[in-house]
Specification:
348 residues, alpha/beta, Rossmann fold, Alpha-Beta Plaits, 3 domains, six-stranded parallel sheet, four-stranded antiparallel sheet, 10 strands, monoatomic cation transmembrane transporter activity, Trk K+ transport system, NAD-binding component, RCK_C, RCK_N
Length: 348
Amino acid sequence: MPVRRVRTPLLARLRFLAYALRLLAPRLTILAALTIAGGLTLQARGSAQEVAGLDFVGACYQVYTQLFFEHVSALPEDWLLRLMYFTVPVAGAFVVAEGLLKVGLSLFDFNTHQTAWIRIMAQTYRDHIILIGLGHVGFRVLEELLARERPVIVVEARGEGPFVEEARARNVPLVIGDARRESLLRELGLDRAACLIACTDDDLVNLEVGLDARQINPNIRLVMRFFDQNMARKLGKAFSVDSIFSTSALSAPLFAAAALDERIHGAYRLGDTLMATLELEITAQSPLAGKNATEIRALLDAPVVGLRRDKQPPTHRFNRDEPRRPGESVIVHVAVDEIAAVKARARG
């Protein structure tokens, strides 16, 4: 699966710029106050020659240039103005340097910067997916969602998790924190989200997060992971969870089907029936040779869902009207109990 990086919305970048400017706001206010106070002082105490033709804006501009050590006028005669001419540049340099240092430390402080950035990203999202838990299952879910270009925000309890850096390398908004905090879910835009997936390795955490999410947003789609299959079924009915899955229940049919036949691609249980996708190779003597997907379905009594050409990876994108030739393989959807009969029909 190709690695996909999350594109940062322009609105999020603009909001982050506004966030950085808010960090500078107190220092900018001090510089503005120094400029205005200096301009008023220059007009009030300057000699007639020094302020001749100099309005308030011009006086403020002279003080402003002093903040950056660029004097545009000679040293005045008044002692207070002389003191101002010496102290304003030093004070301005100190305020600017201190402000830039603080903003720089804030932006390069990973935890502070990351938290602010994710909150800003969340404000731009709508109908997004919140993924709780970035273990082995959670990361696979994340990969599938990114492949489908769905906006995702991830919450992981452990900063040292095995897939944290990988997710960050893809620009995925990721919060290190406790998803059981309602305030955190609200900050991530749960009220605007389309779905919440709780797939940590702790059933109780998944349950608590799911209940909190349903309380905050009654219309959100809930998908939960549970190890206990019986408990999963009961909770799904009791708490109106849209989809609730047991990892062991999902993997067991695939293991069983793979043990019965090496050409199984996937398996799941449909009611009481174990279903599978089975690959059948087309040989020169096979009755499948020269037939298209519709004809193969009629012959095998099984729908054709995929095709493998030569040694290429299988795909579901192929011309269903094109006759299949020897060397190719078709992938059919069939009940596991019917695999032997389907193979027999494929051999003729």
